[in-house]
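thought: fold this chain, then report.
action: predict
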Amino acid sequence: MKLLSIAIPSYNSEAYINKCVDSLLVGGDDVEILIIDDGSTDKTGEIADKYAQMYPDIVKVIHQENGGHGAAVNVGIEHATGLYFKVVDSDDWVKESAYKKILETLKELIGGNTALDMLISNFVYEKEGARKNKVMKYHHALPKDKIFTWEEVKHFHKGQYILMHSVIYRTKLLRECGLKLPEHTFYVDNLFVFEPLPYVKTMYYLDVNFYRYYIGREGQSVNEQVMISRVDQQIMVNKLMLDYLIEKKSEICRYRKMRIYMTNYLEIITVISSVLLIRSGTDENLEKKRELWDYIKQKDILLFMRLRYGIMGNSMNLPGKGGRKISVESYKICRRFFKFN
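observation:
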């Protein structure tokens, strides 16, 4: 059995997948690299197959019809043989020294008395044209270099969350929680770092800048105009997160810090949905914003009150054209002040 399985969802990635895979091969025989060719129409599949031929004990390739990022992650979880599981997108890469430290740490922890559910590390925004890359760290919110529980989690900054780039899960936990991401849908990485949390009892934070998250590629899903064009998928993920929080309410409420964290995460996703709908400037999307907030109100009135009448919820629901302009500017200020993307 491998120590760590790494899934690489790949669609038309021929221009950059080599950099991704090469950075992961440094892990050697401790690692299983699963390249999921998600119906690519370029040479992605051929490149992946060459890696599998060169490194048959490390690289495995799964070719499938296009199902989107969620389908590729689902297949990765299904085929993983490692004790732990990580997703690395095909246009991203990892830093060698931090990677080796993570593998060393996982080896040490599997020999202990307590099973580790989730390892967290830092990631770096590798932004095209930026003079200085921003590092997302968690040292103010999480204990370092020790196994800890939700009771020991401190305060997260507003808009700062544990993203897909930050986490490594115990593979068995992902299967036990029944995680199944929607297919043909963007932004499901939010579900990947949300739905398993009620099952996570033990965590470990390693303060190393491991994952390099590339931003700036044309047509990338996090580009604002692209997000506006796909806003229906953003809303769908938003509603799925809300439904899950309500469905798992009894389990989540057992851990106060978990409940606060998950509620705050849902808040920022709802704010992002709202600001995208406002920024689009269409009457149709303004109606979708009203419908989204009505949906929350109908599902759970107390949760609605918490989200709607907080600082960020209030700023997203100011009346009129002038109010909407203030909403967008308020979001920009919050983004700069709290340093979230």
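thought: worth noting. Residues 337-341 have pLDDT under 50 and may be disordered.
final: tokens above.
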